[in-house]
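Milestone M4 deliverable, item 7.
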Amino acid sequence: MTRINLEKCFPQMPAEERERLARASFRAFCRSFVERGLLWWSSEQRLRRVVRIEGAEHLDQLAGKPVIVLAPHFVGLDHGGIRLAMDRTMASMYSHQKDQVFDRLLYEKRLRFGGQLFSRQDGLRKTVRAIRSGVPYYYLPDMDLGRSSAVFVPFFGVPAATVTGLSDLARLAGAAVVPCVTRMLPGGGGYVARLYPPWPDFPSGDVAADARRMLAFIEERVLEMPEQYFWLHKRFKTRPEGEVRFY
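Output delivered:
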């Protein structure tokens, strides 16, 4: 998947460079997976040293108001989410895992500092209620979940099925959108979760334009640290009608 995704998104990049990027991406993913042990079992004091927050004022200025924290799929997203939950009550989503033991462990450890966690299968009602109550919602909407509630918008020039949940939730809950991207630092230096200013004029009333705005933001961050995006996902699994599958 990684090599196919990189070839589709960076067709002008020399094959040797794409291969180096694919290998760097695999190393980053493996490191983030191993370092989840810190998130799940290390002390709060150590976690505060390992994961720093930049731009917290963008979230603090909206305290008590409906907020969606847009968290794209970079390898450090769990580190950023748990670190934010150490300072404030947060809500987020998760997908049920086939292995019941791992599913329970994942659920419990993501809530080790409190907060709320909603399954994708729960629907929107509980989520909207939590956002309206002033609990920031850590939202990960940049995966291919099929045609349902999705529009095709370009991601690095390739049509990608993109859920409209970000603009839908923002509209239903009257929420501001504050992007958050967590960067893995080199040499075992930990992570930095950076919060960006709230997006003005969002949602716009045009779900396709909103989805493209989100992907444009993610593209900018990908170009800053391409090896840290979650290229392992089948981002282009769903194709427009009549188009040949990539995978």
